[in-house]
Write a structure and sequence with these properties.
2 copies of one chain form a homodimer. The first copy, chain A, has 12 helices and 8 strands. Helix content of chain A is about 45%, strand content about 15%. By secondary structure, chain A is α/β, with parallel strands linked by helices. Chain A has a single domain, classed as Aldolase class I (TIM Barrel), CATH 3.20.20.70. The interface between A and B is large, with 59 and 59 residues.
Chain lengths: ~270, ~270
């Protein structure tokens, strides 16, 4: 999906919500366990219920991998279902990959050829040649980890160099030379508040994928106040707050209500 | 596998060789493509041929994932085959994972419960809570990326802070507080030469997983001169140089010869 198509989807649906599909067999309604593939059955119902209120879905690879073959199959089925039924939704494989060039090439083939998602989250530690193999696909995106919402983000991401530049800023500056704002986004945690101002000074136009609203305590208003651009420039993710809004037979309705609630807040915060 | 068991294996086999199973359908002998699962058939033959000369195997997850379900199945079969037939060999899932705590927990379950390998490579960028979920398993290891062999390692890993400490050194110092030398190793590229001296000043006893000998141009003698400890403290990986030593029907014999050649060099370099 191109940048313009993504912006158009945000305008049409008046939403910049990304629904995180962190689907966990232990947390889904237990009546689904009798389905042939409970993970896919759950995802399908969640997607059908929330699609009008969001522009993106983000399956988290770890939750599928830990179910072995059955999980990997459910991930493929979920992406295929989205591609076929919701072609205007942006699909992010949240996989945090990154390795030397010939290996990153294989990961890129996995997600962009084998699975055909729109974007993959990538870790920056190994530098340019670990990221560029993901950039060889038209309309496909790298979403690079930058300043995350977890406590451990303080261990390395915020360390400053001799000139006072923190690592997260160097990651933005250096990686901006590898791709334009039509192929590269960044992960910035919602708990970062005013740090969004500093980030916008470095990457004024880049899209940011923002996890951490809801369960992790980030504020949607604050993220928008400091991080929004004239094109919106934000994809705000919510996972547990939507998909586990209820865990009985009303789970899909409850997910729709939670997604609609966020969409309505977003509508008031959009610049168009 | 415990640290003592690993050291014992090195002593018994007079080898600290790790064989990298970067199995690529395009590169394996083409007569194998008629097998039901060519990737597993290739791995099985390579393992049987090289096991006397090595102490570890390192399947690279990317090469399996990019084949979809069939690839994931081949990875599971390979680990199962190793577990059953070569219980004294150390198995590393080279997966470069790392995410917020509840997600890393899922990755740890994937590799340590679902697949039962001995170690997983992990990326440090997200800090402590992205790594510690992998440390909750007795006899299982984290192999943290530290100073890699690829050109992009210069982008962030070697950046120094206000006190002149490079990021790779901070990663060693900070992560040493998360686990002891019986649960944490580090990836250091073989092309680093004398940098091993600096690394040994910070982590004198830790095992290092060293890729980059062979295809990437690192020197075994130099790695040993500057990086070896009284316990050996090294696992030197070779992938392409062994598994693709020939690509006709003699591939397994050629792999055995390449592995034996490295083992014989290693025998002369060991401190015991």
């Amino acid at each position: 999906m191109t940048r313009q198509q993504l912006i158009d989807a945000i305008k049409t649906r008046k939403s910049f919500l990304c629904v995180g599909l962190d689907t966990d067999l232990k947390k889904i309604p237990q009546h689904l366990l009798k389905e042939e593939n409970p993970i896919f059955a759950f995802n399908k119902a969640i997607i059908d219920a929330t699609a009008p209120y969001c522009v993106a879905y983000k399956p988290n690879a770890a939750f599928y991998e830990c179910q072995g073959l059955k999980g990997w199959e459910a991930l493929e089925q979920t992406v295929e279902y989205l591609r076929k039924n919701y072609p205007d939704h942006f699909i992010i494989a949240d996989a945090k990959r990154g390795d030397i060039g010939n290996t990153s090439k294989m990961y890129a083939a996995t997600f962009f050829e084998q699975m055909n998602v729109d974007a993959v989250t990538v870790a920056p530690y190994m530098g340019k040649d670990s990221v560029t193999p993901f950039l060889g696909y038209e309309g496909k995106w790298v979403i690079l980890l930058d300043l995350t919402s977890n406590p451990g983000s303080q261990d390395f991401q915020t360390v400053t160099d001799a000139n006072g530049m923190p690592l997260w800023e160097r990651v933005l500056r250096v990686s901006s030379e590898w791709a334009g704002t039509d192929q590269m986004m960044y992960v910035v945690g919602a708990t970062r508040g005013r740090a969004f101002e500093d980030i916008r000074r470095v990457v004024p136009d880049s899209f940011l994928l923002v996890p951490g609203v809801g369960a992790q305590g980030g504020s949607l208003e604050e993220v928008c106040k400091y991080g929004m651009t004239p094109d919106c420039g934000l994809l705000v993710n919510s996972s547990r707050g939507i998909i586990y809004a209820a865990n009985d037979e009303s789970y899909a309705e409850a997910a729709a209500a939670a997604a609609r609630d966020l969409q309505q807040q977003m509508e008031t915060l959009l610049p168009f």
